[in-house]
Write a structure and sequence with these properties.
The complex is a heterodimer of chains A (350) and B (331). By secondary structure, chain A is mainly alpha-helical. Helices cover 74% and strands 0% of the residues of chain A. In chain B, 34% of the residues lie in helices and 22% in strands. Chain B is globular and about 65 Å long. The chains are: A mainly alpha (350), B alpha/beta (331).
């Protein structure tokens, strides 16, 4: 198993490299120029080219063919991408064009906010989606089943931005039960250590901060969890229905095992492989959805930051943020693959 | 007379599908005594497995439905039992072994766990006792190094070993009835013989009743006291093994016996097969269901289903209008 994990971790290197290339390319394909975005439309040509030079934006993107023609191999790869890659290998994500601060530092500060929201949403999606799917499967074609399945269909079809706005309207504006955005009220005294507010506040027994940050996470988490929850519920239901037809489920019943254990012990463990696969994939979509959700709820995570940076053409931030998200996605799916071996004893990784 | 172990009265089971109502079991009645070995014989789709699954209400409902009948086990109707009471019977007093040992064990749990589970459901045993007993059971069914193999998963067992493990699981609570639903069909011939011998031995040692469902008359000849021959959801002939083999009175049973390969035939002799196919269970004919394939057809066969009547001196029942003609022909 350890060897398998190491092999898989090595295999992520080309994946991540691919991500850097794609992100790098697409960013530069979007019309717009970071220098103009920074200096404004009325900036002088001179100023613009000065900024471009300062950030190396005047160099060729990937390869310098002119330099190659002159036999200058070092110049051939002395391009934006390879300079970026060289720094990346040394752990340097570059500096923000606008704010002139290292990307890595801000990323580390904002990353926990995104992870907290993502994991919390996934947690909500799983603890609601899986049981709903199981119950629907156990009571197939009942009113409960039809209701939850129609509900989940609505759930998967719901645009996150619309749902987010509606949630704010109802719970923050009309009912005023929950805050409309942010992570913490300014009135609450709290100095987080790791920037995972829920965990930090709990570990330091700062109950007011915990309650407040909990209240802040509810609405964005609902908005973000809706689609994965619905997908998980549907997947759980269909996977359970498949497994319930299996001979070993009939064997368990013939043994006199209670219906509860038939469901949760004999069927669920076998049904979990496709469920966990879909959860892993949903996590990727969830990270993408976080960009929208964070923007709507002013959640200070990397999603909102990357979104703002795309508008500002702040390339290093977008590159750093997407790289980190891609890395998380790859790791989550590695975790999913490793969990297969635990769920199904027939699967071995050597 | 002593109460039979199991008495089935007019059991009718249907399946409601998109193609119509499938009449799988159409009024099956018989008794099974304590310690008796009953063979249930018939071709695929004759209702033998469905009727057996219905005894413990193991058919999936829907699409299945038990329309009528009684399944009296020690005089209690299993079809009317509260679920909790039924659960005590399942695995406790009636145990079942299924056709395909490859799929009948849960791949996600160890063999030992699955046997121990059967034990702990019905008996108040702690983990250690259950484990000891499971190892005992596994070696009883002939699995070497049983204690170590408890921690194996089903995929680490061969087909024959899995069926042995299934039998161990079934025997764990010393049931008074073992229903074996084609337990050897999925196994190769040498393993089949071993499993038959194993069940024979265990039946003798435990004195339990066995219902052995198969399409293989050879196996039941070796094992059973009595035989029910089923066709299209009906019992069409029932009797002691000798009567079924020597004084066959139903043309379908004759056909089945005729299609058995024999060692004393000249090499190259073609196997006899019954012409035609079993009837569509969605639209059963009005008369006898075997009418289309039968060589003894008379007008009454087309008119109505013959009742099961006693044709011998010791519980030999046949559902055929022309059994007397067949008897004469045989004589």
């Amino acid at each position: 198993m350890a060897r398998y994990v190491i092999r898989r971790l090595i295999a992520t290197i080309p994946t991540i490299l691919g991500v850097t290339i794609v992100v790098f390319m697409f960013l530069r394909l979007i019309p717009g120029d970071p220098a103009i975005a920074m200096l404004g439309e009325h900036a002088t040509e001179e100023n613009v080219s000065r900024v471009r030079e300062q950030f190396g934006l005047n160099r060729p993107t990937f390869l310098d063919r002119e330099a190659l023609k002159q036999g200058d191999f070092k110049g051939f790869i002395n391009t934006q991408y390879f300079i970026y890659l060289g720094r990346l290998l040394r752990g340097d994500l570059g500096d923000s064009i606008h704010r002139r601060i290292p990307v890595a530092a801000t990323l580390m500060q904002r990353f926990p906010a995104t992870m907290e929201l993502a994991f919390f949403s996934m947690f909500v999606a799983i603890i609601i989606g899986v049981p709903v799917g199981i119950i629907s499967a156990a009571r197939r074609n009942s009113i409960l089943d039809s209701t939850t399945m129609v509900g989940s269909l609505i759930g998967v079809s719901m645009p996150i931005f619309w749902l987010g706005v509606m949630l704010i309207m109802l719970f923050a504006v009309i009912l005023q039960w929950l805050p409309a955005g942010g992570r913490l009220s300014s009135s609450v005294e709290f100095t987080p250590t790791t920037n995972f507010y829920l965990i930090d506040s709990l570990l330091t027994f700062n109950i007011p901060a915990f309650v407040d940050s909990f209240q802040h996470i509810i609405l964005p988490a609902i908005a973000l969890a809706t689609i994965p929850m619905a997908v998980t519920a549907r997947m759980t239901r269909s996977s359970m229905l498949d497994v319930m037809q299996e001979d070993y489920v009939r064997t368990a019943r013939a043994k006199g095992v209670t219906e509860r254990l038939v469901l949760y012990r004999h069927a669920l463990k076998n049904a979990f492989l496709p469920i966990i696969t879909i959860i892993g994939l949903q996590f990727g979509l969830l990270l993408a959805g976080a960009v929208l959700t964070e923007t709507i709820f002013s959640w200070p995570g990397i999603g909102k930051w990357v979104y703002d940076s795309i508008l500002a053409r702040d390339y290093p931030i977008v590159q750093g943020g997407t790289l980190l998200i891609a890395l998380i996605f790859v790791l989550i799916n590695l975790l999913v693959d490793v969990s297969y071996a635990y769920l199904d004893p027939r699967i071995h990784y050597d | 007379m002593e109460q039979p172990l199991l008495e089935i009265k007019d059991l009718r089971v249907t399946f409601h599908t998109d193609d119509g109502t499938v009449h799988a079991v159409n009024g099956v009645s018989y008794k099974l005594e304590k310690g008796e070995v009953l063979g249930i014989v018939g071709e695929s789709g004759c209702g033998k497995s469905v009727h057996a699954l219905s005894i413990m209400r193991l058919i999936s409902i829907p699409p299945g439905r038990i329309d009528s009948g009684e399944v009296l086990f020690y005089g209690k109707d299993l079809l009317k039992l509260e679920f909790e009471e039924l659960r005590q019977v399942r695995g406790g007093q009636i145990a079942m072994v299924f056709q395909d040992p490859m799929t009948s064990l849960n791949p996600a749990y160890t063999v030992g766990f699955q046997i121990m589970e059967a034990l702990t459901v019905h008996k108040k045993l702690d983990q250690n006792q259950a484990r000891d007993r499971s190892a005992e059971l596994l070696s009883l069914v002939g699995i070497p190094d049983a204690r170590r193999r408890l921690d194996d998963y089903p995929h680490q067992f061969s087909g024959g070993m899995r069926q042995r493990a299934m039998i161990a699981m079934a025997l764990s609570c010393e049931p008074s009835l073992l229903i074996a639903d084609e337990p050897t069909t999925a196994l190769d011939v040498t393993i089949q013989a071993q499993i038959v011998d194993l069940v024979k031995r265990l039946q003798r040692d435990y004195g339990m009743a066995v219902m052995w469902i198969t399409h293989d008359l050879g196996v039941v000849a070796e094992l059973a006291h009595k035989i029910n021959v089923m066709y299209a959801g009906y019992i069409i002939e029932r009797g002691h093994v000798k009567d079924i083999f020597k004084r066959t009175r139903h043309p379908y049973t004759l056909g089945l016996l005729g299609s058995l390969p024999r060692l004393d035939e000249a090499p190259g002799t073609k196997l006899v097969s019954i012409p035609g196919l079993p009837p569509d269970l969605v639209a059963l004919p009005k008369g006898c269901p075997f009418v289309a394939r039968c060589t003894y057809v008379t007008d009454s066969c087309l008119e109505s289903m013959p009742p099961l009547e006693n044709v011998g001196d010791r519980d030999h029942l046949v559902a055929c209008w022309n059994w007397a003609a067949i008897a004469e022909g045989a004589a």
